[in-house]
Amino acid sequence: MRSLHGAALFAAFGLGASAALAQGAGDSAGTPPEPVQTCRVCHGIDGVGTNPMIPNIGGQSAEYLSKQLQDFRAARREDPQMTIIAQDLTDEDIKALSDWYASITATYTLPE
């Protein structure tokens, strides 16, 4: 089994992402927080990128995901979409998204 590290995190957020994130990090029945519905456009609800250029983020540590979003927000890391998206995220927003995607168990099948 191997882990894949992504270069970017959550693309395709709408302008209302921060307000939606404030609703919480999902529920105990496995329902994702509202903004994951937007993130899934590129990263999938399970954190698997929808094309080879989109990183797989499901199963990454919450600390890693949080750090990347904080770096995009502070412009210490740049990406045409993510830098803009992260500007409006609060610390609570970043925690909710990081916790959701970190809670996914990622498995990979190696070629034979």
Description of the molecule:
This protein has 112 residues and is mainly alpha-helical. The chain has a single domain (17-102), classed as Cytochrome Bc1 Complex, Chain D, domain 2 (Orthogonal Bundle). It is 38% helix and 0% strand. Helix 3 (62-73) runs antiparallel to helix 5 (91-102). The longest helix has 12 residues, at 62-73. The radius of gyration is 13 Å and the shape is globular. 32% of the residues are buried. Keywords: Electron transport, Heme, Iron, Metal-binding, Signal, Transport. It comes from Paracoccus subflavus.
Number of strands: 0
CATH class: Mainly Alpha
Rg, rounded, reads 13 Å
Helix fraction bin: 25-40%
Fill in the CATH topology. Answer: Cytochrome Bc1 Complex, Chain D, domain 2
Q: Which stretches of 5+ consecutive residues score pLDDT under 50?
A: 1-24
Entry keywords:
112 residues; Cytochrome Bc1 Complex, Chain D, domain 2; 5 helices; disordered N terminus
Helix/strand layout:
Elements: H1 17-21, H2 36-43, H3 62-73, H4 82-86, H5 91-102
Helix pairs in contact: 3-5
Keywords: Electron transport, Heme, Iron, Metal-binding, Signal, Transport
Domain Cytochrome c: 1-105
Signal peptide: 1-22
Summarize the structure.
The chain is mainly α and 112 residues long. The protein has helices at residues 17-21, 36-43, 62-73, 82-86, 91-102.
